[in-house]
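Write out this protein's structure.
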Amino acid sequence: MILGIDTDVLVAWAMAGTPRHLAARKLFQQEARAGGGWLGLTPQVLQEFLHVVTDPRRFENPLDMPRALKMVHALWEAEETVRILPAVEPVPRTVELMNRFQLGRKRILDTALAATLELAGVPRLATFNPADFQVFPFLELVTVAA
């Protein structure tokens, strides 16, 4: 079964020394051992990942862009990765969900990710911020204690 990955989990997985690094690594290993466990990645998560891991305001030792790009390429091409490509449908679905749940501007990216996963038939999402996604009844949230 495919497990969608939120940016926070991917960042924790990549950035050694972060408080949730080991938890993210453990989650990825568990999914890989689960037999048929696939990691679902979307372009928007990988783009946000690049933005975050190269930001010197967030990390004392951020990744340089060439290294971060190399990681993104490797993740996108990995055998365990299912590429979840957004189509036209996530835009109206994102608008619909934002209206339905009365969500504000700080919820746009999370809502777009939820819509993309829903339309791709991916019911599970790994996140360290379950409160950001609890409103979406179609997502099963997978979290790991830090």
